[in-house]
């Protein structure tokens, strides 16, 4: 499980850098400043959670079940939160109907909060 967490953290971190560069260099010709800021928010939160996963992989005291729960919440949260932000920020460049994902961003954010809460609870339950 720890190998999967490290690989996923490295992958979504790498993808955040690629998307950040894509936004900074290619999308700035096509998006408004507000849309670029929105896109960068998705990149930033994706990178935060790449680091979060790498941190999670260093924890030795968590049960496999706790690791899997936090991992799954984080992955689902990043996909829904950052993914929907990318789609919303670039909606005028695609034929994608953004009304379809209106609840994806807050749901993704909620899942990320739950991942952090699960981390907190697991560490709080430790005796030392």
UniProtKB/TrEMBL annotation:
Keywords: Membrane, Transmembrane, Transmembrane helix. It comes from the Bacteria. The chain crosses the membrane at residues 5-27, 42-58, 70-88, 100-124. The keyword Transmembrane applies. GO terms for cellular component: plasma membrane. It is a multi-pass membrane protein. It holds the Pfam family DUF423. The keyword Transmembrane helix applies. InterPro entries: DUF423. It is found in: Membrane. PANTHER family: TRANSMEMBRANE PROTEIN 256. Belongs to the UPF0382 family. This is Uncharacterized membrane protein YgdD, TMEM256/DUF423 family. It comes from Flavobacterium saccharophilum.
């Amino acid at each position: 499980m720890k190998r999967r967490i490290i690989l996923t953290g490295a992958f979504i971190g790498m993808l955040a850098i690629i998307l950040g560069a894509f936004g900074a260099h290619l999308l700035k010709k096509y998006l408004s400043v507000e849309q670029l800021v929105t896109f960068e928010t998705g990149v930033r939160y994706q990178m935060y959670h790449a680091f979060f996963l790498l941190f999670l992989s260093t924890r030795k005291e968590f049960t496999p079940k706790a690791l899997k729960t936090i991992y799954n919440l984080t992955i689902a949260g990043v996909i829904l939160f950052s993914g929907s932000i990318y789609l919303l920020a670039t909606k005028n460049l695609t034929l994608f109907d953004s009304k379809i994902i209106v609840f994806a961003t807050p749901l993704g954010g909620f899942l990320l909060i739950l991942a952090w809460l699960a981390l907190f609870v697991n560490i709080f339950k430790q005796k030392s």
